[in-house]
Amino acid sequence: MYIRGDHAELVVEGRLDVRSAADARTVLHSAVDDGAGDLVLDLTGLDSWDATGLGVIMGAHRRAGRCGRRLVLRGVPAQMQRLLVATRLHRILAIEGGIEAESLPRV
């Protein structure tokens, strides 16, 4: 996993899983704490995430809310969009452009 950016926008690439969760959590928490306004998380280059990675995203979402900020997901890959719909997290998380659950291909 590789994260680059600043306190306003972060780009996540690779896998966000149990092995990279601690590092990702540290970077996300620092970005939330050090900035103001929306924090955009660009997931275009994200290959996959597991339950731990999704937990990191949710933790950053909660932390951002406590700091008066909003975590916004951008470029969520289709397979991860399906997971967000299945878990109904697409109703909680701010997703740029939204997710049309009906338009996602079934697996």
From TrEMBL:
Domain annotation STAS: ranges: 1-107
Annotated coiled-coil segments of the chain: none
SUPFAM superfamilies per the UniProt record, alphabetical: SpoIIaa-like
InterPro entries for the chain: Anti-sigma_ant, MlaB-like_STAS, STAS_dom, STAS_dom_sf
Gene3D superfamilies the record matches: STAS domain
Family: Belongs to the anti-sigma-factor antagonist family.
PANTHER family according to UniProt: ANTI-SIGMA FACTOR ANTAGONIST TM_1081-RELATED, ANTI-SIGMA FACTOR ANTAGONIST TM_1081-RELATED-RELATED
Protein name in the entry: Anti-sigma factor antagonist
Source organism of this protein record: Streptomyces niveus
